[in-house]
Amino acid sequence: MGIFSFFSKKEKKEVLDTGLQKTKKSVIDKITHAIAGKSRVDDEVLDNVEGALISSDVGIDTTLEIISRIEARVAKEKYVNTSELTSILKEEISALFAGDPTETEGFVFPDDHKPFVIMVVGVNGVGKTTTIGKLAYQFKQAGLKVVLGAADTFRAAAVDQLCIWGERAGVPVIKQQMGSDPASVAFDTVSHAVASGADVVIIDTAGRLHNKVGLMNELTKIKNVMKKVVATAPDEILLVLDGSTGQNAFEQAKQFIKATDVTSLAITKLDGTAKGGAVIGISHELNVPVRYIGLGEQINDLQPFNNREFVESLFEGINL
After folding, report:
1. Backbone phi and psi for residue 67, each to the nearest 5 degrees, phi listed first
2. Which superfamily does 9-94 belong to?
3. Phi-psi region of 246 (alpha: psi -120 to 50; beta: other; left: phi over 0)
4. What's the mean pLDDT when you consider all of the chain?
5. How many whole angstroms separate alpha carbon 6 and alpha carbon 107?
6. Which residue in 136, 156, 161, 286 is deepest, having the highest Cβ count within 10 Å?
7. Order of strands, sheet of 290-294, starting from the edge strand that comes earlier in the sequence
8. Is 203 within 8 Å of 222 (Cβ atoms)?
9. Is-contact 138 200, C-beta < 8 A?
């Protein structure tokens, strides 16, 4: 089954629009400036739009793909007014996101097996543990039985923070002593989930960008021990990225994708940055779907991601 929409469509749009305000202003200002005084889309307009997208942290390769698509449209249709440019941009950008745009937002929990196991990865400071806590709370409110695993055994603060979120969400947290084997914690967590009939398991992992071989070995070991309990585990490997770091988040993502089979993304802290355009490039260039975005401090500010709603919000307010 698909996870419910935690709030109404109107409330979701309000949070999205408010959370993307800084990025929206940046994109709108740059696009508007790029085509000022022009009545039709020509090479100069496209060059200006290209610069506007790159400076909004969309990424060079993704920007070039967008411009190439627009050039093809202009060539086919012979004449395109600048007033049509916004709708063309929205269509072409929406088409670039990884994943099926018709899919249920967020995670889809199959009815044929449980627990559904989510392993969460990402560097320290990106909002990984907070994202786990918010997911646990939302899943619990949807009527699901959730268990958390504190497999980041290298930082006492990470375990303590997860326990606080567990109390807040009303879900159990499985932990061991500091310095314990993370794979052992993951094994205990999944075993507890099976024994207690839990629907969802979320495993927090260490957020260290240590050498790639070490990271790969650690994450592989965690996956392998969980499979001893549930053969399908993990069902998802969710990479959490800090959207406020723009293209730096893209570089982090590449490192984790080399180390493990990342299946989905959560991009946090979009409310405090003008670099939200990075969401487009990260999903497109890495070919990994975005499942959640963080738009503020509140529980409800973690939203299941919808690429069309995101793009509509991003370009809303451009008057050409």
Report:
1. -65, -40
2. SRP54, nucleotide-binding domain (1.20.120.140)
3. left
4. 88
5. 13
6. 136
7. 173-174, 146-150, 200-204, 116-121, 236-242, 264-268, 290-294, 302-304
8. yes
9. no
Which neighbouring-strand residues pair with 303?
A: 293
| pTM (2 d.p.) | 0.92
- Report the CATH fold assignment for 116-305: Rossmann fold (3.40.50)
pLDDT band at 1 (very low <50, low <70, confident <90, very high): very low
Alpha-carbon distance 127 to 115, whole Å?
24
Residue positions forming the annotated binding site for GTP? 122-129, 204-208, 268-271
So where are the chain's domains?
9-94, 116-305
Amino acid code (one letter) for 109: F
Q: Which residue numbers belong to the known binding site?
A: 122-129, 204-208, 268-271
101, exposed or middle or buried, with CB in 10 Å at 0-12, 13-18, 19+?
exposed
Residue 164 has pLDDT above 70, yes or no: yes
Q: Are the C-beta atoms of 10 and 113 separated by less than 8 Å? A: no
